[in-house]
């Protein structure tokens, strides 16, 4: 298993007379499997909300979803299950998948009661999954339907960052309409995972299985991208590096002189992680110039190897005295994807501050951006939210969550 990196600039040429030129760089990063390589062993931890609000159908459908995932695990995989309300308990401690019948019995014994403390569930889940993470793909599925009323959201985010440092990915699933979309998104983003929305109980199995399919496609883990900038080249000052596929995430950049590192997490075989970097290039003399270099470090659990480094890939531009713009359409699509997300973020901020008219304008802009991307379903959600606000209605909690997800991903019709 090795990493595959494809780089592309928004325009490979610059005007040699320009003192400052902006360019966007995209990196499509995926894993390539050798023919003889088998799927990696999985180390899965389910952290399930069993608070009182999950009574009856919600908890029963979550039980079914959890069992459907467990039935897909192989003998070499490991599993742990945490149930939490205002306290947390490991109903299945980290262990190789063996006695499926006993595990199902433990799941079916779960009852809904008490309040909600997400950080207690996360803390215990990280402890359990850490026991089996060697040479495996370690993922947490965290499901909750409510606010963290008995917990501490800041502690949740600290735990998410800790999980990332431990090479553990956290995927979050919001159930119903009352969960905190900001907190669950930040947990998933911090631990390089995905955010899912279970709007109706009947969708629980589908959302669990989609995340599990993604987990099965992981080929490399703990990937970190390092960008070296040449003299006269700089990053944009605000949020210069973001992931735009498979979902949009503002990435944290760690600078070290002219080197900049971001954590990517797992690299998959069936889909690319697309990274968008915003650069500014100083004036260049006519000719070919290297402006940057990139390298990805990663772990290969199948080979039992850590901190493998890819080849260094140079990024070059041609400075010309007779410059003619040639926009790369694929990079433009990545720029629009990030724009859709940021436009919606601005709309949400304006709505929270009481500027409804400003929120409407930005949501309409985001809807138009989605149409440019060919994201018709996303455009519909964003425009519907704008229209409701425009006629004086408030967005329901469910509509707010749909709007957020429409900005962050491409909605499948």
Descriptive labels:
Immunoglobulin-like, 19 strands, 34% strand, 413 residues, 34% helix, alpha+beta, six-stranded antiparallel beta sheet, 3 domains, seven-stranded mixed beta sheet, Rossmann fold
List the helices and strands and how they pair.
Layout: E1 2-9, E2 13-15, E3 20-32, E4 42-49, H1 57-70, E5 78-84, E6 88-96, H2 100-108, H3 118-130, E7 137-144, H4 153-165, E8 169-175, H5 181-190, E9 195-198, H6 204-216, E10 218-229, E11 233-235, E12 241-245, E13 249-250, E14 254-256, E15 259-268, E16 273-282, E17 287-300, E18 305-309, E19 313-320, H7 329-352, H8 356-373, H9 376-390, H10 397-408
Describe this structure in words.
The chain has helices at residues 57-70, 100-108, 118-130, 153-165, 181-190, 204-216, 329-352, 356-373, 376-390, 397-408, and strands at 2-9, 13-15, 20-32, 42-49, 78-84, 88-96, 137-144, 169-175, 195-198, 218-229, 233-235, 241-245, 249-250, 254-256, 259-268, 273-282, 287-300, 305-309, 313-320. With 413 residues, it is an alpha+beta fold. The chain folds into three domains: 2-33 and 220-327, Immunoglobulin-like; 42-216, 3-Layer(aba) Sandwich (Rossmann fold), CATH 3.40.50.410; 334-408. Strands 2, 10, 14, 15, 17, 18 and 19 form a seven-stranded mixed beta sheet that branches. The protein is globular and about 75 Å long.
